[in-house]
Amino acid sequence: MAYAKRNILQNNLKSRIRPLQTKPNDTLIPLDAFGLESIDITICNPPFYSSTSELISSAAAKSRPPRSACTGADVEMVTPGGEIAFVSRMIDESKVLKDRCQWYSSMLGKYSSVEIVVGNLRGAGVDNWAVKDLVQGNKTRRWAVAWSWGSMRPSHVSVTFSGETALVHQLMRTTKDATRGTSTLPKHLLPFPSESPFTVEISIESCSHRLNDTLHALELRWQYRPIMATGVGFAKGNVWSRAARRKQQHNPTDSANNYHAMNEEDEEEGPALGFKIQLRKGIEGRSEVMVRWLQAQSIMTMEIKELRRIRTFQRDSKNAELK
């Protein structure tokens, strides 16, 4: 602790970093000890090993130059149950803290730990998580897991929209997002993707009109900017299914009242679904559509129905072009 405090002072970070001395059985996320009501994120590099013998055997199994040898003390590298038990404690604490922290995160040193930690997250009721592999050099690989009890979904790292070449279009389809930033994990450990690109066989002008008319007809808050070919919508429930649209036709309501009702809903509970749709000119007169999942209270009740709605829009657009 003395060295930590000295490093903080020597780097002029006293106003930004506050060290806290804790004991092994103390809480891992001590918001109350810091006098904090909420924080944005936790970042953790946990002790990887469950015993000194495991640490020694793991080091012996690796062929590394001396300069990369582990210099961590047992108190830094070893904890009962290893990293799985440590991060599981974080998960348990997050169940109590909930949205007092926007995002909880930790690094993991073992590939085998990722599946167990993601399983523990699911078992705790978390449906909003992200995984990513971290590669240092040619051999060393670590994994990061993050989770949130909030409804805001992580964004893609980067997506390039362009219809000028088939190559760029293919890159757009294969770009990994922040939630699924790994190629080493099986799909069942990855969260549902937050973006879904596809192509429709009509011009961007026709696609823009059809999209705007379709979503304006639903009972949701929808704002579309034709110049940017981009719209954002928020729904308080399932308003896109056939049953919901039939109910709306039988009981039409004023769109202004719907808008204000959604605002009140947002303030009290938040929307059940938030999304963004962006259009770009594709090749050969086609339109590229990117649907971005912004917010949702529950994956299982929203994702499948929304994707079905998107595919229906795609199919209807293609049929309209053929006619």
Would you mind describing this structure in some detail?
The strands form two sheets. Strands 1-2-4-3-5 form a five-stranded mixed beta sheet, covered by helices on one side. Helix 5 (82-97) runs parallel beside helix 6 (111-123). The protein has eleven helices and ten strands. It has helices at 2-10, 31-34, 52-60, 74-77, 82-97, 111-123, 166-174, 204-216, 242-250, 255-268, 299-322; strands at 39-41, 101-108, 129-136, 140-147, 180-181, 195-200, 221-225, 230-235, 273-281, 287-296. It is an alpha+beta fold and 323 residues long.
Q: What attributes does this structure have?
A:
323 residues, elongated, five-stranded antiparallel β-sheet, five-stranded mixed β-sheet, alpha+beta, 11 helices, single chain
The count of DSSP E runs of length 2 or more, i.e. the number of strands, is 10
Q: List the secondary-structure elements in sequence, H or E.
A: HHEHHHEHEEHEEHEEHHEEH
Distance between the termini: 74 Å
Helix content: 25-40%
Contiguous runs where pLDDT drops below 50 for at least 5 residues: 157-176
**Largest sheet geometry:** 5 strands, mixed
Strand arrangement within the widest β-sheet reads 1-2-4-3-5
Mean pLDDT across residues = 77
Broad shape: elongated
Global Rg: 24 Å
How much of the sequence is in beta strands?
15-25%
Number of helices: 11
Q: What structural category arises from helix and sheet content?
A: alpha+beta
